[in-house]
Design a protein that fits this description.
Layout lengths: L6 E4 L6 H13 L6 E5 L1 H10 L5 H13 L4 H7 L5 H12 L4 H6 L3 E8 L5 E4 L5 H11 L9 E3 L2 E5 L8 H6 L5 E4 L24 H8 L1 H17 L3 E4 L14 H21 L2
Parallel strand pairs: 1-2, 1-7, 2-3, 7-8
Antiparallel strand pairs: 3-4, 3-6, 5-6
Length: 279
């Protein structure tokens, strides 16, 4: 079903990533794996569990752990610099709560890239790591560090933030790496365009990173352009998209586990449908 040049692209979206979790769990149920995966933000978190062949692991983090630990709060932002509790998510979760299978990840022959934004250059970085667990954690943390509500994370001594700032759906990266067609798991329905206004980021924020402020000032426009491009590529048969069927009721920091569970189930259903129908 999957050719040697078929890639998998995973969009981010914060808690909307529970949809992607459902799709990937269906893929693992049917042992559907890709030779190349590129992911950003919440997609990177999902991609890690997919690469280590640990079904329902990310679902547990996004739903069950949310009920148990309440790791999304303004208190976290004030006390730890991030609205998502980084100690729970990047220390206790992979090492204690649901240990990450680093050995299985290292044995996986597929290439896995995660997208970050370099705060110095304002450009996307596409990073891989198979050996160093600390660096791997730093990359996924940086890829998921939402601007304004998370701390900047250093990778290789370079300050980085969420890769979705500059490349929310890295399908062009997959094509540039020689993969086509690509399966794209998105967290918005077809036809969605963000109505949020772009604005010039004041110097109060990220004053040490002027190029970061520039890309943040054009983030919505860039995202909408990517959505339009992917719809054209889908119409041309260059990508296959798996996406929610209806407008999203889950936002980036949703804490309603009933909504999250429903979105997970939709993702699993559509992922299972994809596996049964084939490409």
């Amino acid at each position: 079903m999957i050719g040697s040049k078929t890639g998998l692209v995973l969009e981010g979206g914060g808690m909307r990533g529970v949809f992607t979790s459902g799709v990937l769990d269906a893929f693992m149920k049917y042992e559907l794996y890709f030779p190349y995966v590129v992911a950003v933000s919440a997609g990177a978190c999902n991609g890690l569990s997919y690469m280590s062949r640990q079904p329902r692991r990310t679902r547990y983090a996004l739903i069950d752990m949310l009920e148990k630990y309440s790791y999304i709060s303004l208190k976290n932002l004030i006390t730890q610099g991030s609205i998502f509790d980084p100690i729970i998510l990047y220390e206790r979760f992979p090492n204690e709560i649901v240990p990450y299978d680093y050995d299985a990840y290292r044995r996986n022959p597929a290439t896995f890239e995660m997208v970050t934004t370099n705060c110095l250059t304002g450009r996307a970085c596409y990073l891989s790591e198979k050996q160093d667990a600390r660096r791997l954690t730093a990359i996924v943390k940086a890829s998921s560090s939402l601007p304004y509500v998370a701390q900047i994370t250093e990778v290789d001594g370079i300050p980085m933030l969420d890769g979705g700032i500059v490349d929310s759906i890295p399908v062009v990266r997959a094509v540039d790496k020689g993969f086509s067609p690509n399966v794209v798991i998105m967290t918005r329905n077809r036809g969605f365009r963000s109505a949020e206004p772009d604005f010039k980021v004041p110097r109060l924020f990220y004053k040490e990173y002027p190029r970061l402020r520039v890309v943040l000032s054009h983030h919505v426009e860039a995202y909408n352009d990517q959505l339009a491009l992917i719809e054209r590529m889908e119409d041309w048969g260059e990508v296959i998209c798996i996406r929610p069927e209806r407008p999203m009721v889950v936002d980036r920091i949703c804490r309603d586990t009933r909504k999250l569970e429903a979105l997970y189930e939709e993702g699993f259903r559509l992922g299972e449908q994809f596996c049964k129908n084939g490409i």
